[in-house]
Write a structure and sequence with these properties.
Aspartate Aminotransferase, domain 2; 2 domains; alpha/beta; 39% helix; binds ligand LCS; Aspartate Aminotransferase, domain 1; five-stranded mixed β-sheet; seven-stranded mixed β-sheet
């Protein structure tokens, strides 16, 4: 179905060109590693690109392709590249865009391993990385060097909830000839469309909001241009971080309800944030839907809503946070985020353990920071769970 001129919730369900000979209403799982050629010439034509038939699942597969075409339309991009995980998406993009001797400027608060792979691994190939607070645009300009190739931002950032101005970054990227890459995991295309704001590449851990049910790990990249698409797809295929057909089937099913899940989670999150903000045991709270968030106005400008992620610190610091995590019953004490279930975790010792203590502090990932991902349960139950745990501190 042609959905280019349709609303976003219609696109979630119908975008993509998948059709099969049986008229299947949903996309079947093509659980095959390889595809038969009609004859030797057809095989050669598939490899040379003269025919666009499927060859081998690492290179392409109809179930995976259906998801890629769906997400490309949701992000308003040229095309999509599905990956085995969010880190598969990040490493494919870095591998494609960074040469030996080049330099990348990144947000300092990003998912721990996204920073770790630059600091610990790309550095082995003489790739330099600078991590700055990209919420202040002047920090980016100061960090740019003659060999800078990529500007990599995560907004809202994991786990500080810092927000970076995507349109302003796009101006800088154009001026200095950089590729602007945005990790849109915390918002999903329902709340934020980085390509519309001038980004060149957008990527996701679809493990989070896009799949939304905490049952698979996966990633995806969407590019603005064909040139970037070809370059990144080549690296993804050669590195072998492709999505699996069953993963693709699961995420095609998950993404259909993205809109209603986010609406409900966000509505819950606003009520949870208001409860926490007024609670005497809370020292600080960062939620983009509250005016107390330092970039509240920017969040309003570039996002269609504040989402359902927040971070906070308790008056009793880390020990109080530990007590809270040990006393919640409804919220799962688990990493990951963006699913239907409410989750709580401690970034300094969990998701961001790979970042040095000094760099964590510089990035605002303080020891007292607790990250909270609001789910779609009844909000009274979520708040009651927090209330009884806070009472025990
Ligand atoms: N980008 C962001 C913003 C993330 O939060 C994560 C994972 C990734 C990329 C990597 O995706 P993955 O390979 O795990 O699919 N974030 C996690 C988190 O905060 N808790 O557990 C994983």
């Amino acid at each position: 179905m042609k959905t280019k001129d349709k609303g976003f919730n219609t696109k979630l369900i119908h975008a993509g060109a998948f059709e099969d000979e049986f008229g299947s209403a949903t996309v079947p799982i093509y659980q095959t590693s390889t595809f038969k050629f009609k004859n030797a010439q057809h095989g050669a034509d598939c490899f040379s690109g003269k025919s666009d038939g499927y060859i081998y699942t690492r290179i392409g597969n109809p179930t995976i392709r259906a998801f890629e075409q769906n997400i490309a339309e949701l992000e308003n991009g040229y095309d999509g590249i599905a990956t085995s995980s969010g880190m598969g998406a990040i490493s494919s993009v870095f591998f494609a865009l960074l040469d030996a001797g080049s330099h990348i400027v990144s947000s300092d608060a990003v998912y721990g391993p996204a920073r770790g792979i630059l600091e610990q691994d790309f550095s082995r190939f003489n790739v330099e990385a600078s991590f700055v607070n990209t919420s202040h645009i002047e920090n980016i300009i100061k960090a740019i060097k003659p060999n800078t190739k990529v500007l990599y931002i995560e907004t809202p950032a994991n786990p500080t909830m810092d927000i970076t101005d995507i349109a302003a970054c796009s101006e800088i990227a154009k001026k200095y000839n950089l590729v602007l890459v945005v990790d849109n995991t915390f918002s999903s295309p329902y709340l934020q469309k980085p390509l519309n704001l001038g980004a060149d590449v957008v990527l996701h851990s679809i493990t989070k909001f896009i799949n939304g049910h905490a049952d698979i790990v996966g990633g995806v990249i969407v590019t603005k241009t064909m040139e970037l698409y070809k370059k990144i797809r080549h690296c993804m295929v050669y590195m072998g971080c492709n999505m699996d057909p069953t993963q693709a089937f699961m995420v095609i099913r998950g993404v259909k309800t993205l809109g209603i899940r986010i609406e409900r989670a966000q509505e819950n999150a606003m009520k949870v944030a208001q409860f926490l903000q007024n609670h005497p045991k809370i020292e600080w709270l960062r939620y983009p839907g509250l005016e107390t968030h330092p970039q509240y106005a920017l969040a309003k400008k570039q996002m269609n809503g504040p989402g359902s992620m927040m971070s906070f610190g308790l008056k009793g610091g880390f020990e109080a946070g530990r007590k809270l995590m040990d006393n919640v019953h409804l919220a799962l004490l688990a990493v990951s985020l963006g699913g239907v279930e409410t989750l709580i975790q401690h970034p300094a010792s969990m998701t961001h353990a790979a970042v040095s203590k000094e760099n964590k502090l510089k990035a605002g990932i303080t020891d007292d920071l607790v990250r909270y991902s609001v789910g779609i349960e009844d909000v009274e139950d979520i708040i009651e769970d927090l209330r009884q745990a806070l009472d025990k501190i």
